[in-house]
Design a protein that fits this description.
The chain has about 375 residues and is mainly beta.
């Protein structure tokens, strides 16, 4: 048998011990590595009480997935390189302790510490009130919804380890959307593949928004870092971002009181239909390369937030279905997506970790080849 499936959901646990484990010792042999493992733990105590954490280790890369928080990826590590950032929110927060309506509808920030989290599904962007009078909280609800079905699949021919979670965002007389999320690691490889499918379970069409908030601090981010983005058009989000538009692709050292700057892009797609981005730290000879399918993720936001480390020194690499403006703005601009009843829209992205000079040069060449001779226009003032 080449494909092995396991159900991880609703597994009982003794406190302090893994709820469920599978490794190269008792599991199938996988090409490319002598050692791999998958482990499910349930956190106990404090605001993390009840959170399930699925750790996947493919021999060189390890990530912690949070089914309790919309299948977000809390953190990762690859050959000693940290994937993630130092949020003031140090541990995952159970959705039961996150009041999205709090802090003037900014309560989403009380649980914000993942390396990768999703914003959506019904709405995204800043808080406010929609045209029909319904309240919009910051970045939506899906990151604070728990997956109700979680399965593991091991393909011993392809050497892949895949975790799939099904998460619903439902309301009577309201949103009826389902997210089926699959994260895949290939043994011995320093890359992560994410495949998400958003399904309209209602009888009529539904608007939806989805943004991947990929948050990275050191060592990939430092005052030596820059970012390469092939794009057709770029615009600062607001007047604050316009102040730094000439240096949009470089980062500074931590500055107390620094106000975030955000830049919006219409990315250039490669021959396979993927937009690309490279966060590059040349002083360390490392980089984080992002690829995303532009057919369903046609836009990109770049968040620069170089405040002191204890406050959350970070940059956000954010492929999205539409820009994270107020929902009414995106509707007016024609960027707000809609799904017909019973239909599914799929989204795909990949992350590749460049660990040394050779891997960084390979990633740089790939991204730079899309930039050379065809880089797009930059608006000095907000235009999207």
């Amino acid at each position: 048998m080449s494909v092995h499936q396991y159900t991880l959901l609703n597994v009982s646990q003794q406190v302090g011990k893994p709820a469920w484990t599978l490794s190269s010792v008792e599991g199938p042999e996988l090409p490319g590595t002598d050692s791999w493992h998958v482990e499910l733990r349930r956190m106990r105590g404090g605001l993390s009480d009840g959170i399930d954490v699925v750790t996947i280790n493919n021999g060189v890369l390890e990530i912690d997935v949070l089914p309790t928080r919309g299948m977000g990826i809390w953190r990762g590590e690859c050959n000693g390189l940290r994937l993630g950032w130092d949020s003031p929110v140090k541990l995952p927060v159970h959705p039961a302790f996150v009041n999205l309506e709090g802090r003037g509808q900014l309560g989403w920030l009380d649980g914000f510490n993942e390396w990768i989290c999703r914003c959506g599904l019904a709405f995204n962007g800043p808080p406010g009130v929609d045209a029909d009078g319904s309240p919009l909280t910051l970045h939506g609800k899906i990151a604070n919804r728990a997956a109700h079905e979680v399965t593991l699949e091991i393909d011993d021919n392809a050497g892949t380890i895949s975790l799939t979670g099904v998460t619903d965002e439902l309301s009577m007389f309201g949103t009826n959307l389902r997210l089926t999320s699959k994260v895949t690691l290939t043994t011995g490889k320093t890359s992560i593949k994410i495949e998400d499918h958003v399904t309209n379970c209602a009888s009529g069409p539904q608007e939806y928004e989805l943004l991947y908030h990929i948050n990275q601090g050191g060592p990939f981010l430092s005052d030596h870092s820059d970012v390469l983005v092939p794009f057709e058009e770029m615009s600062p989000r607001d007047d604050r971002a316009a102040e730094g538009v000439e240096n949009w692709n470089t980062y500074q050292s931590a500055e107390a009181g620094y106000a975030e700057q955000v830049y919006y892009f219409k990315p250039t797609a490669d021959a396979n239909g993927f937009g690309q981005l490279l966060l590059n730290n040349p002083s360390e000879q490392i980089g984080l390369q992002l690829k995303f399918q532009t057919e369903t993720l046609p836009y990109l936001a770049l968040w620069k937030n170089t405040i002191p480390a204890q406050d959350g020194y970070v940059t956000g690499l954010e492929p999205c279905t539409d820009f994270p403006n107020h929902r009414a703005v995106e509707r007016e601009k024609g960027r707000l997506k809609s799904i017909e009843p019973g239909r599914t829209i799929s989204h795909q992205l990949e992350l590749h970790i460049a660990r040394d000079a050779e891997e960084l040069q390979r990633a740089t060449s790939e991204v730079q080849s899309l930039i050379d001779g065809q880089q797009g226009t930059i608006s000095p003032t907000p235009s999207f």
